[in-house]
Write a structure and sequence with these properties.
The protein is of the alpha+beta class. The protein has 2 domains: 192 residues, no CATH class; 125 residues, Heat Shock Protein 90 (2-Layer Sandwich). The chain is built from 12 helices and 5 strands. The chain has a 5-stranded mixed β-sheet with strand order 1-2-3-5-4.
Amino acid sequence: MPGLTAGAGWLSSEPASGSPDDSSLSAFSGDDGQVPKTRGIHGGPPLARAITLAVLCSYVAVQVIQVVTAPLPSRGFKLAVEVASVATLFLLTVSATATSAERWPQWRRLVTLAAAGAITYFPLLVLGRYWIGMAGFFAGTALLLLPGWAAWALFAAVVGTMFAVPAASSEGAYGVAYFTLSTLLVGLVVFGLARLSLAIRYVHATRGELAQLAIIKERMRFARDLHDLLGYSLSAITLKAELTRRLVGSNPARARDELAEVLDIARQALADVRIVASGYRNISLAKEASSVNSLLITAGIDARVEINCGALDEQVDTALATVLREAVTNMLRHSTVRNCVVEANISEESIRLLVSNDGVPRGARSGRLGGGLENLRTRMEAIGGTLTADVPGDGWFTVLAEAPLVLTNPDEPASGGAGASPHEGD
């Protein structure tokens, strides 16, 4: 997402480090390769820039009218000085208020300020009091091009000189106040409008990035759900299909029963794949545990499944059921398990789910979590819980998930809790 970084120009609209680039975003774009656009304020940055230029032109026009209508002697020479100075100072101010000024090198900032200062003060020798009102442009440019305290120090110095010059010219209290406040006001208006234009540009860029990140988040949720859903179903289908192949010759009746279960799992998986795209769907930890117990028995694994937690919050129930499903899927895929323990119980203000087996998977002792367990950790963190996976002293691979009984944000669903158990309809 674009970030605002502190710098010589106060705010910078350069992209923040770590923002997704075009190549990463293109993978998550729509069918036509484009990310949907968000609706913004009518006009947006171009309108803000146009308003800034219109205000600057209006101030310049007022100054020109003031000099043209003034009773100055040698009008031809002084008018030429006026027009040339106004045009030059106006162009310098316009360039300083442009977005590109945020990327100017230091030397260019100083040269611009020096030129603006010269054009602000030298015409005073020719035009006198009729040029004092233009100092506000220089004051605003100082705020735009200098960093921090230096900008405000120069701004205060410019306003101070516009107090001292009229006072030394015997303008009177009204004239001194008028020229001082005019310089102060014009400087702040120039600075404020330029920063407002940049802020609007930043907001528009940020909204586009947020829309892109929302698409990425949704695609990642869909990928996690699909991984967790089909991983379990396909593992179950594989195990039962292998068992059916062994039983075809020796026990045809049992083979037919297993084949019927394979068809039920496949149909349920197909239905769940269609549903997962629609969003969040609840899964029951108790029903998932019953399904897991049946699957482990079919796989010839000595399993002890104890779920002693009663009714749970829907989000917690779904998250823990998903942890159980993925843990069993990983166990069947990546280990040579012979014994397994599944326990869930309530302890004070939290609920603990423990899935442990004696078939330590490859890479488990290194402490690295696979993609499936990383997905589970993300799901648990979404509900304020934790997930750890390690190999304690007994040599069993253990997955421990802990979740609060009462969620801090009950209205926000846990990430990616879609998909029902393949056996939920049994």
